[in-house]
From TrEMBL:
Keywords: Acyltransferase, Amino-acid biosynthesis, Repeat, Transferase. CDD domains: LbH_SAT. The keyword Repeat applies. Pfam families: Hexapep (PF00132), SATase_N (PF06426). This is Serine acetyltransferase. Signal peptide: none annotated. The lineage of its organism: Bacteria, Pseudomonadati, Pseudomonadota, Alphaproteobacteria, Acetobacterales.
């Protein structure tokens, strides 16, 4: 873990190995569960620091009035997505039901917020993304909508998708498959289509589209493998694959599959430089290797 995570270090998290079969040695420290109690204790501590009287009420409502991370998450989603059609209290109870039925959904939320803290230099603590980052809010709303979709409650699932799109400017189809430790940086304008797959440890910047190429049904959206970084404004279209650790330059139009640990840029996107090392989604390094072609 990076030095930035010293406020919630590995020992405090009581990390437990999980999913050992996924990935190689480079993923060993990522495939671990976060101690929810330790995370919640840290968030409570952070919420005590703010002295602004206008924010104290927000911190009380969002964090300090709750007994655990699950309660706060459920209240957050209910409060954000609730409207006249489906009241906030009803949605809060629904999220509690989701977390009770699928504890991995709550663990994924904790993993997401920890990933944001690790990767985003604008994120000073855990309370900040929890209360203020709409990319985080959009992903957690999707996770509940996906649970509803898989349970056959399609109309309510689509209602949550619609509300999240209205509120956050992020449109994630509830049938899409998203992994853990997902960062939607800034969030605005991100679209993830119905048959998209986004694996663990992916970072996506604003105005990215994971879309289809026409009206045909079936498996028609991109597959984003582990550790991929997608720069702002990139469009990934069709049933193509971005290989593990790939980097997509800002504004690129990607119409063909990208090999693992490869950088592509342009319209249409093309390979630049040689294969890189490491996972760009973790470093958020958007620099490009020297261009080896001239237009």
């Amino acid at each position: 873990m990076s030095a930035r995570s010293n406020t919630l270090n590995a020992s405090a998290l009581s990390l437990a190995d999980t999913d050992a079969e996924n990935g190689g040695a480079q993923f060993k420290d990522l495939d671990r569960q976060i101690d929810l109690a330790a995370l919640w204790t840290q968030m409570l501590s952070e919420s005590m620091i703010c002295a602004d009287p206008l924010v104290k009420g927000l911190l009380w409502t969002g964090v300090k009035s709750h007994g655990c991370f699950a309660e706060a998450m459920a209240a957050l989603i209910g409060r954000k997505l609730g409207d006249r059609a489906v009241a906030a209290d009803s949605l809060t109870e629904l999220v509690h039901e989701c977390y009770a039925a699928t504890p991995e959904t709550l663990r994924a939320a904790a993993a997401d917020i920890h990933a944001i803290r690790e990767r985003d230099p604008a994120c000073p603590d855990y309370v900040t993304p929890f209360l203020f980052f709409k990319g985080f809010h959009a992903v957690q709303s999707y996770r509940v909508a996906n649970w509803l979709w898989l349970a056959g409650r399609r109309h309510l699932s689509l209602h949550l998708q619609s509300r999240a799109s209205e509120l956050f400017g992020v449109d994630i189809h509830p049938a899409a498959r998203l992994g853990r430790r997902i960062l939607l940086d800034h969030g605005t304008g991100i679209v993830i289509g119905e048959t998209s797959i986004v694996e663990d440890d992916v970072s996506i910047l604003q105005n990215v589209t994971l879309g289809g190429t026409g009206k045909h049904a079936g498996d028609r959206h991109p597959k984003i493998r582990r550790g991929v970084l997608i720069g702002a404004g990139a469009k990934i279209l069709g049933n193509i694959e971005l290989g593990e650790g790939a980097k997509i330059g800002a504004g690129s139009i990607v119409l063909e599959s990208v090999p693992p640990y490869t950088t592509v840029v342009g319209n249409p996107a093309r390979k630049v430089g040689t294969r890189h090392l490491g996972l760009p989604s973790l470093t958020m390094d958007q620099t490009l290797p020297p261009i080896d072609y001239i237009i």
